[in-house]
Amino acid sequence: MAARLARQVEVGLAAVDLTLPQYRVLMYLDEGEVMASRLADHLAVSRPTVTAVVDGLVMRGLVERSPDSDDRRRVSHTLTVRGRQALEAGDLSVEQRLRQIAGHAQAASGVDRDVVGGLECWRAALDEHRRTLLGRAR
Question: Quick one: 74 and 121 in the same domain?
Fold first, then answer.
């Protein structure tokens, strides 16, 4: 089921010209400036993979690269205003896609189910899980 939902997220993102890896990078950068190695670790991908995704986002003006002031070998990444707008458009498109599909839940099961409410529960749980992890990392 998770894979099927992920596919629908991809469809929603495609409507605003984003891929799932690009969206994941934008979401993470929305929390603040991030070094490339940390970005790769967080996304559980190799540095060359992150570099390729970020290259595309930089070319589109959604992400900005800048050298670290303390160590010129390190590069940090930040979300631009356009990047934040793209992230918001992605969020809205995915939400609309999932709500559209959720509208079929009652017809499919014959039971009035709060599918969107269930997704909101998952969002809250994932957000709390992330806060817990961030608290441990500090």
Answer: no
Domain contains 107: no
Whether 65 maps to a domain, the answer reads yes
- The residue to which tokens 């991809």 are assigned: 10
> pTM for the full model?
0.80
d(CA 82, CA 63): 8
57 domain-assigned: yes
Which pLDDT score, from 0 to 100, does residue 100 have? 87
For tokens 């609309």, what's the residue? 96
Q: Are 25 and 39 in contact (CB under 8 A)?
A: yes
Q: What is the pLDDT of residues 78-91, one digit of tens each?
A: 999 999 999 999 99
pLDDT, tens digit, for every residue of 43-58? 888 888 888 999 999 9
Which structural domain, as residue segments, surrounds residue 117? Answer: 113-138
